[in-house]
């Protein structure tokens, strides 16, 4: 009987390990609901804004976006100079799951508070929504 249990366990342990591995792999490749819309926020600061003000701006924006649901991706950075000139100082990219989520972002209290705290440092703001093309 002891040899029967060892032989059975000898078959079951690898099968169990393979099953666990397959579940993990399956979980990594289950298709998620794709994002539908991206919002680009470009901001030009007034003269005299310091590097510390910019870092605070990035930090506050990142904190604000964490309070808004269905933001699937976020990135931001300083605008680099180019031949066309530098018309904005920073750009924020927000990706939303749905158009409704992007609309909720516009009306969200955290966004309005962020604007109220910072708008006196801005000289120009451009916000655009774009569809994400699925190919």
TrEMBL record:
Keywords: Membrane, Transmembrane, Transmembrane helix. PROSITE patterns: PROKAR_LIPOPROTEIN, S_R_A_B_BARREL. The chain crosses the membrane at residues 9-29. InterPro entries: Dabb, Dimeric_a/b-barrel. Residues 37-130 form the Stress-response A/B barrel domain. It holds the Pfam family Dabb. SUPFAM superfamilies: Dimeric alpha+beta barrel. This is Stress responsive alpha/beta barrel protein.
